[in-house]
Design goal:
Length: 150
């Protein structure tokens, strides 16, 4: 991973450990498409749980693995604007229940608090996959500001 620019006040890995949304950009015949998604940053890659039967971006990744991801943390009241943008390649991998559980815990907390549809992923694990996005270049910026009295 080649870090082109890094002005974040925190380590990029620490930033990516926050339970934020990533925006995955893929190519389609109609032009670029962006999907807001939950992710897990682990082993130098972003991991996303997906059902290829219900989402179109896995097929786009298989046709053209060149992808980009943006992760943004924004809080208008604190003037926080932090961004990590990455370009790289994605692949559709076999479903790993342990990795998927770690991903869901980031956003949903302990399993006993999960909505039933998230437990259902593991009942239908054969229908799910993981997208693995491996960054090649990274730009990390802190563009925070002193907020005016809101």
């Amino acid at each position: 991973m080649d870090v082109v620019e890094d002005t974040l006040a925190v380590d990029i890995g620490t930033f990516l450990a926050r339970p934020l949304f990533c925006f995955l950009a893929t190519a389609s015949s109609e032009g670029p498409r962006v999907s807001p998604l939950w992710y897990l940053w682990e082993d130098g890659a972003l991991w996303i749980a997906v059902s290829p039967e219900t989402k179109s971006y896995p097929a786009r990744i298989e046709r053209d693995p060149r992808t980009a991801v943006a992760v943004v943390d924004f809080d208008v009241h604190r003037g926080l604007v932090q961004h990590v943008g990455m370009r790289g390649h994605a692949s559709v991998e076999e479903f790993d229940p342990d990795r998927a559980r770690r991903l869901f815990r980031r956003y949903l907390g302990p399993e006993q608090r999960w909505d039933g549809r998230f437990h259902g992923v593991f009942d239908r694990a054969g229908r799910y996959r993981l997208v693995r996005f491996e960054p090649e270049t990274v730009v990390a910026r802190d563009q925070s500001y002193a907020p005016a009295g809101l």
